Structure formats: structure tokens, C-alpha cells
């Protein structure tokens, strides 16, 4: 597997639990999984020193943070887990621009973590560095089940393969938190439940802005000092909590911790945030699903009540933060939220309008009729044939990991309007005589007014990546075009005769 990320450094910037003997079996599981992904993994100098040592030596955690950015070989800085006192690193990172100087030497590195790592995200935001929020080594890569949770793994793979996250959509399932993390629990599945989609609590279903935020308790502690009385003064001295102009036009992310704080404490945290003026500055709020859905309805009611602005969009039930599974949300990239289409899409500053995202039918079953009609209109193949193939796709999607990898259908949809801009399918055979060359990418089409924007390339790359994740590493494609598919890693394979055709067409292969 080709990946953008080759070298990973795991750091313990909050809790030192990764160095304790009672999690060694988890560490070993995670290490094997990362290596199986083709990644070279190292631990920072103090990452495995244990809870007591790192609690007593925040300067050592700070040294590891700086070391990770200064190391030219590190591609991804992966946090071990969260904690509750990350703010204590501030004097060792900003006293003499230590972190600033290190970041200038390592601006191309990816940073991934969540929970009290919220503080590290704010530190890097202060220095202008985009980061990725939502997963960590111990709770995600080291999952005790036979494999990582599929939704979690999907986004982790996307990050290491591409260096970015294109879009997030709801998970089909949510999982109860484990009570047993011992060696006896290795290989045991979590209890799962069907998950509802994103839930719009109020406001417009469409809003945009760059996302910033994190764990609501960590954000509130910077203001209230609930667990550490000196925290607000230290945070204020180093300007960790963004000022109101920094929040303006952004989207605030709030997710709640494993503490499952009672509603009255959640209200206090929200009121502390409101007092800063942040609710009046942002374009919208994204809310993570609470762990085990504890107090979910109460939290949602309090959000609407405390925000007290029905025009401010609030989108809840996002699989981010402490509830499993977890997606990954980029901080520092433009995001466009579309509650109606159940998608949050991310774009770099270089991306052109119109913004769009690519999805599979398995991800968006309710798009079946629209997609079938669109393909029928473009290619003239009977509508029933598309519906039959799509029904088979959705039937297989319901079989989970035991599914057949295809048929599958992909579309690029314009943000906000729902217009399909392009599409393709993956089927067994695209009506030609080389039945041995399978499966086939078929029906590749981009709307004429949208050509030249890379949409077809995004569709092809997404299809290849998704098929590879399902165990299909080789795809074939029959076409009369020459010079186009080569741009996206396809190679001419042979000539093949289409059904009913007198002249052969070109067969391409992607491995």
C-alpha cells in the first residue's frame, strides 16, 4: 500500500499510561497494526516512562513534543492518549519560542490526537499549523477486538494514505465503551448498536467555516480551572484560548469526555464558553456523540438553551471524540456542512468552486434512485439494470465485513445543491469478451460543464482506494480514450472486444 505517511512517532503529551505494564498487551496490538500498514514506528524518548514520571515532569513531555517536530524523518505525530493537565507544558513550549522554532522546521508534519490533547491542538493553532482531531494510539489503534473498528480504521487509513480527510459521514453503528481492558478481553467484540445520522438541533442545515475546538471539559477547564486552579492563569499568560476575532467565522467543535459529566456540570462548561463570546462569533457548532449516549438528550437540550440563538446551526451526533467509533476532523481546513446530505466536506484553500465530495452508494443508500436515474440518463442503459446492480450493492453492504466487494457505485455531488457532477461504477464485467479481466470500472462520466476540475480523477482514486480496502488490488477499465487514464496511474493492458462491437477497445489496468 502506498502511503503519504511512512514514519510515525508516538508521544505521551498528557497521561503516561502507555508506559505501564498493565497496557503492554494493548501496546503490542497497536504496534503490530501500524507495522502491518507499512509504517515505521518509534516512541519518543519519554513516551513509555509511565504515569508517575510524566506527571512529575511535564518538561519531559514538552521535550518530546519539540523532538517530534524537529525530527526530519517523522511524518505523523500520534498521541498515545489524552489526560487532564496538558496545559502544564505551556511554559516549556512558549517561554522562549521553543515550540515555534520546532514547528517552523516541521510544518509538513501531521498531528493527531484528541481529549485533553485539545490543548496541544490549540498550541499548534496558535502557531498557524493545521492539525487532525479525533483519534489516538491507545484507544483506537490498540482496539482489543480482532481488528480496528471499521469506521475508525477507514479515516485513519485515509489520513496516512493521503495526508488529509476529504469528508466525513455518519457511522452505521456506535459501540458501548469497554469495562474490561485486560488481556482476557483481547479478541472480544464490543457491543454495537445502530446509529442515527447527524442530527440538526437548530439553524440552517448548510454552513461553513474552519473547525476548531475539542473536548468541552478541556476547553472549559482553561477558563474555570475546575481540576487545576492555576490553569486559567497559565492559559491566559500564554494566550492559549483563542481570542474572539480568531473564533469569528469558524465552526466550534464540542465533544464530551469519558467522565460523562452530569448535566449541571455540562451547563457550567457551556456558560463559561458563552461568557467568552464564542457562540456569537462562530458560524455553527458541531457536537460529538457522548460516550454510551449518556446524557445525550440532556446535553442537546442544554446546548440549545445556553446558546440561546435559534439562528446558530448546531449539528449533533457526530462520531468524534470519546464515543466509539471515531472519525477524524481536520482543524485549519475549510469545512462545508450539509446536514440534509449527511456530510461534512473539507477543502484546502487551493480547491476550486464548486465544492463537491465523492461518496459510495454503500455510504449513502438513500441516493440510490437519484444515482440510478442519473446513470440511466447519461448512458442509455435501462434504468432497471442500474437499480438491480445497486440493490445488490446495498444487500452486500448489509453483510458487513463478509460482503462481496462489488458491485459498487460512486458519485461526486455538489455541496449545497445535491447535483451529481460525475460518477462511475465497479462491476464484474463491463460487457466485453475478456471475462477473465475483472472487476471492471464502468460508466465513467463527468458533466460537461464540470470537466477539467479533477472530478473524474477523484472518482477513480476513491474507487481504487475503496476497492483496495475491500481486498481488491487490481481493477480493469475498457475505453476508447487514450492519454486520460494514464494520469491517474492506469496502464494499457490489451485490446478487448465489447459486446456487439466490431472494433476492439483499449483495456486499462490499475494495480
3D structure, described in words:
With 511 residues, this protein is an alpha/beta fold. It folds into 2 domains: 7-347, LD-carboxypeptidase A C-terminal domain-like (Glucose Oxidase, domain 1); 356-510, Aminopeptidase, CATH 3.40.630.30. The protein is built from 17 helices and 23 strands. The strands form 4 sheets. Strands 6-16-15-10-11-12-13-9 form an 8-stranded mixed β-sheet. A hairpin with a 5-residue loop joins strand 18 and strand 19. The longest helix is centred in the last third of the chain and has 15 residues, at 383-397.
Task: Count the E strands.
Answer: 23
Instruction: Provide the β-strand percentage band.
Output: 15-25%
Give the mean pLDDT: 94
Shape: globular
Could you say how many structural domains there are in total? 2
**Estimated radius of gyration:** 24 Å
Name of the top-level CATH class of the largest domain? Alpha Beta
CATH topology of the largest domain: Glucose Oxidase, domain 1
Helix content: 25-40%
Sequence stretches where pLDDT stays below 50 over 5 or more residues: none
- CATH superfamily annotation of the largest domain: LD-carboxypeptidase A C-terminal domain-like
How would you characterize the largest beta sheet? 8 strands, mixed
Figure out the total of helices.
17
Order of the strands making up the biggest sheet: 6-16-15-10-11-12-13-9
Compact description:
This protein has helices at 24-36, 51-56, 58-70, 90-94, 98-105, 118-126, 137-141, 150-162, 216-224, 231-237, 244-247, 263-275, 278-281, 296-307, 368-379, 383-397, 455-469; strands at 7-11, 40-43, 76-79, 110-113, 131-133, 167-168, 173-175, 192-194, 199-202, 206-215, 251-255, 284-288, 314-318, 329-331, 334-338, 343-347, 356-360, 408-414, 420-427, 440-446, 475-479, 491-496, 505-510.
Amino acid at each position: 500500500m502506498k502511503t503519504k505517511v511512512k514514519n510515525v512517532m508516538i508521544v505521551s503529551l498528557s497521561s503516561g499510561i502507555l508506559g505501564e505494564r498493565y497496557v503492554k498487551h494493548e501496546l503490542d496490538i497497536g504496534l503490530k497494526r501500524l507495522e502491518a500498514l507499512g509504517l515505521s514506528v518509534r516512541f519518543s524518548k519519554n513516551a513509555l516512562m509511565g504515569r508517575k514520571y510524566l506527571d512529575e515532569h511535564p518538561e519531559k513531555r514538552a521535550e518530546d513534543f519539540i523532538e517530534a517536530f524537529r525530527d526530519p524523518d517523522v511524518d505523523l505525530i500520534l498521541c498515545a492518549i489524552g489526560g487532564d493537565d496538558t496545559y502544564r507544558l505551556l511554559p516549556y513550549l512558549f517561554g522562549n519560542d521553543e515550540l515555534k522554532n520546532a514547528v517552523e522546521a516541521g510544518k509538513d508534519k501531521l498531528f493527531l490526537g484528541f481529549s485533553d490533547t485539545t490543548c496541544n491542538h490549540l498550541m499548534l493553532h496558535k502557531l498557524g499549523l493545521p492539525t487532525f482531531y479525533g483519534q489516538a494510539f491507545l484507544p483506537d489503534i490498540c482496539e482489543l477486538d480482532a481488528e480496528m473498528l471499521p469506521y475508525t480504521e477507514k479515516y485513519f487509513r485515509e489520513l496516512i494514505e493521503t495526508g488529509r480527510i476529504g469528508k466525513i459521514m455518519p457511522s452505521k453503528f456506535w459501540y458501548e465503551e469497554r469495562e474490561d481492558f485486560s488481556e482476557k478481553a483481547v479478541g472480544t467484540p464490543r457491543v454495537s448498536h445502530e446509529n442515527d445520522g447527524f442530527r440538526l438541533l437548530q439553524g440552517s442545515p448548510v454552513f461553513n467555516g474552519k473547525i476548531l475546538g475539542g473536548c468541552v471539559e478541556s476547553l472549559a477547564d482553561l477558563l474555570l480551572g475546575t481540576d487545576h486552579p492555576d490553569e486559567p492563569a497559565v492559559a491566559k499568560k500564554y494566550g492559549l484560548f483563542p481570542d474572539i476575532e480568531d473564533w469569528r467565522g469558524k465552526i466550534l467543535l464540542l465533544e464530551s469526555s469519558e467522565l460523562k459529566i452530569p448535566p449541571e456540570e455540562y451547563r457550567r462548561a457551556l456558560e463559561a464558553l458563552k461568557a467568552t463570546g464564542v457562540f456569537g462569533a462562530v458560524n455553527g457548532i458541531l457536537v460529538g456523540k457522548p460516550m454510551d449516549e449518556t446524557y445525550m438528550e440532556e446535553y442537546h437540550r442544554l446546548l440549545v438553551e445556553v446558546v440561546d440563538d435559534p439562528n446558530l446551526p448546531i449539528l449533533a451526533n457526530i462520531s468524534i471524540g470519546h464515543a466509539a467509533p471515531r472519525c477524524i476532523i481536520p482543524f485549519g481546513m475549510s469545512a462545508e456542512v450539509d446536514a440534509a446530505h449527511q456530510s461534512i466536506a473539507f477543502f484546502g484553500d487551493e480547491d476550486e468552486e464548486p465544492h463537491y465530495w465523492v461518496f459510495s452508494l454503500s455510504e449513502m443508500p438513500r441516493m440510490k434512485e437519484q444515482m440510478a436515474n442519473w446513470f440511466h440518463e447519461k448512458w442509455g442503459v435501462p434504468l432497471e439494470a442500474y437499480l438491480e446492480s445497486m440493490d445488490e450493492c446495498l444487500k452486500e453492504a448489509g453483510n458487513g465485513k463478509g460482503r462481496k466487494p462489488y458491485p459498487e457505485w460512486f458519485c461526486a455531488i455538489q455541496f449545497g445543491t445535491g447535483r451529481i457532477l460525475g460518477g462511475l461504477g465497479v462491476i464484474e464485467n463491463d460487457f466485453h469478451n475478456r471475462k477473465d479481466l475483472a472487476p471492471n470500472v464502468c460508466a465513467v462520466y463527468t458533466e460537461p460543464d464540470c470537466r477539467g476540475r479533477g472530478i473524474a480523477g477523484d472518482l477513480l482514486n476513491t474507487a481504487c482506494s475503496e476497492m483496495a480496502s475491500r481486498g481488491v488490488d487490481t481493477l480493469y477499465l475498457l475505453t476508447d480514450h487514450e492519454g486520460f487514464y494514464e494520469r491517474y496511474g492506469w496502464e494499457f493492458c490489451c485490446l478487448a472486444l465489447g459486446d456487439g462491437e466490431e472494433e476492439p477497445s483499449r483495456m486499462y489496468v490499475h494495480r
